[in-house]
Amino acid sequence: MTDTAHHAGTRSAEGALALHEPRNEGTAPDLDWALDARANQSAIERRAATLPSRRSVKKEWQAAWLARAVSCIDLTTLSGDDTPGRVRRLCAKAARPMRQDLLDAIGLPDLTVGAVCVYHEMVPAAVEALRGTNVPVAAVSTGFPAGLSPFDLRLKEIERSVAEGAREIDVVISRRHVLTRDWQALYDETRTMREACGEAHMKAILATGELGTLRDVARASRVAMMAGADFIKTSTGKEAVNATLPVTLVMLRAIRDYGERTGFKVGYKPAGGISKAKDALSYLALVKDELGDRWLRPDLFRFGASSLLGDIERQIEHFVTGRYSAAHRHAMG
Ligand SMILES: O=C[C@H](O)COP(=O)(O)O
User: Fold this and answer.
1) Closest Cα to residue 218, out of 191, 264, 253?
2) Which atom of ligand 1 is closest in space to residue 305's alpha carbon?
């Protein structure tokens, strides 16, 4: 996202000319606007519940949509037993996520994922392994996943990851600022993290499963965007409840409201528990409905996922060959 290739408008992973938007600079904190956010829980849940059946993608388009989903994956490993070797294998998969015969069959010259997402300690291995590709490294920072280490250390962690070559930083917010309704503190914290990111793009993880209500998800989304988040992201993948369609609807509408107010386009990243191709299609359909086609590109949309790629590859293989291969053949990602 932050590389010169994207800014210069060179070819992106899916072969289309990469578009570029002015980066969200954020605004002064307008806490009345944040507080004013609404979320009608029952209407939102009804809409999300009917989406997968109402919005099925036709068979001939499915492979194209699934390839688009691959280009938007932040291929992730965030485990205590991560090793440089595992990260290198993941990076090889990120640079060539699908077999060439499958790509040829669906008419795509090349394809990469959106980014590789790792802990700080794995940034150097990932940067090295992805050298010469267009795939950026994203680092989770700020005491991920709880975000409860001392604030100055959280900022240092961001700076270290950027210095080691991460071009995207996924920060976690302090959930307590939402739970205690201290919106100014949430704004100040997020703004300071954004400054620490410098040129690296910042994804603000709201940990929506811990925020209590959809209305507070909407409010936190607005505050994070006013503080300059380039993306708002649902979850760390470590909460009891991670990405959901209702939360997605709320966050997409917050992105739309913010865009109408400021002209800035903010990206969206659902993360955690998305491992099936058909779920990925539901998310893409919702993004298309709420924000339009412009958001179906890796500069404005990512899936945070450690095991979605394998299922998508399986479905595309089935589309091309008429057969399913065993899941273990697509073990990585
Ligand atoms: O940000 C990404 C998540 O940690 C990935 O979660 P997952 O392992 O459930 O796909």
Assistant:
1) 253
2) 10
Residue 186, SS3?
Answer: helix
Residues annotated as catalytic (active site), given as ranges: 170, 233, 269
The interface predicted TM-score (ipTM) is 0.97
In a domain, residue 180? The reply is yes
* Secondary structure element (H or E) that encloses residue 119, with its range: strand 115-119
Q: Scanning the structure block, which residue is given the tokens 């289309």?
A: 16
Domain holding 202, by residue range, is 4-16+29-330
Alpha carbons 278 and 283: distance in angstroms, whole number:
9
Tell whether ligand 1 has an atom less than 6 A from the beta carbon of residue 333.
Answer: no
For 91-140, how does the pLDDT look when each residue is reduced to its tens digit (9 = 90+)? 999 999 999 999 999 999 899 999 999 999 999 999 999 999 999 999 99
Any ligand 1 atom below 6 A from CB of 118: no
User: Any idea what DSSP says for residue 271?
Assistant: B
Residue 314 is assigned to a structural domain of this protein: yes
Does the reported pTM lie above 0.90?
A: yes
The CATH number that applies at residue 136 is 3.20.20.70
Residue 24 belongs to a domain: no
Query: Residue 21 domain-assigned?
Result: no
pLDDT in tens, 185-198: 999 999 999 999 99
Domain count, the chain: 1
At 83, the amino acid letter reads T
